[in-house]
Amino acid sequence: MGVKFGREYKDIVTDFVRGIELVNGFYEFLEMNADDWEALDKDEQEECLRTLADDIFYALGSTPVIQVGAGSVRHDASNHVLKVHDGEKLVSVIYLV
Fold first, then answer.
1. Which domain of life, per UniProt (predicted)?
2. Which of 35, 46, 66, 71 could form a disulfide with 85 if both were Cys (CB 3.0 to 4.6 A apart)?
């Protein structure tokens, strides 16, 4: 099925990475703890976040909600957005079109 989008994919991923970073414990999705995450240099962190964003984006094509750390990412197909939550708090909206 897949997530439909009209924006440049690289722009969506850039916005998505910034949203995922706002979720408490997002690195747990990568099977890391806070110390593991902090031990990575900035480039390694950025690479991990981009990979995480790619993986979640494609998984949302078959599962509309994915748990990430203390929050979740939701695909709102009717509004053509991804919604990133930290706990119950909406922290980012990524526009797909």
1. Bacteria
2. 71
What does DSSP assign to residue 80? T
Nearest to 73 by CA among 2, 17, 5: 17
- Spatial distance between the Cα atoms of 26 and 6, rounded to a whole number of angstroms: 27
Cβ neighbours around 64 below 10 Å, total: 13
**Burial environment of residue 26 by CB neighbours within 10 A (0 to 12, 13 to 18, 19 or more):** buried
pTM, to two decimals: 0.93
Convert the pLDDT of each residue in 42-93 to its tens digit: 999 999 999 999 999 999 999 999 999 999 999 999 999 999 999 999 999 9
